[in-house]
Write a structure and sequence with these properties.
Layout (H helix, E strand, L loop, with lengths): L1 H15 L5 H16 L2 E3 L5 E3 L6 H25 L3 H15 L5 E3 L5 E3 L1
Antiparallel strand pairs: 1-2, 3-4
Helix pairs in contact: 1-3, 1-4, 2-3, 3-4
Pfam family, one: DUF1318
InterPro entries: YdbL
Protein name: DUF1318 domain-containing protein
Length: 116
């Protein structure tokens, strides 16, 4: 139970963390805009995915950059809490999807994009 509490706490910190670098701030601003437009959505593994089949190179690069940042944080959390990486990602994915505003996209367990 204590380990799970550490995971929850760490994921919450990740979700509300203020970006430390200018490029991270740009990525977060771009992510919010892309999600609001429906170009990107949240996946159950805590990563972002491309919703539009004809996504631009900029959207693809943004998704890769955001996912690299998230994976770095998920690995740190997994190491600090001795939790499996997939468990950390799954918990983050659930929390991110639960917090999505109406109208944004998420991927369901079957791999289909759904609008919240």
């Amino acid at each position: 139970m204590m380990r799970m509490m550490k995971i929850v706490f760490s994921v919450l910190i990740l979700l509300v963390m203020v970006p430390q670098f200018h490029t991270e701030a740009q990525a977060q601003a771009g992510l919010a805009e892309a999600k609001a437009r429906g170009a990107l959505g949240e996946r159950p593994d805590g990563l972002v995915g491309i919703v539009e089949a004809s996504a631009s190179a900029d959207i693809t690069a943004l998704a890769q950059r955001v996912n690299a940042q998230r994976m770095e944080e998920y690995r740190k959390i997994a190491e600090e809490t001795s939790a499996p990486l997939q468990a950390v990602q799954a918990r983050a994915g659930r929390q991110i999807i639960q917090a999505l505003p109406s109208g944004q996209y998420f991927m369901d367990a079957a791999g289909r994009w759904r609008q919240k």
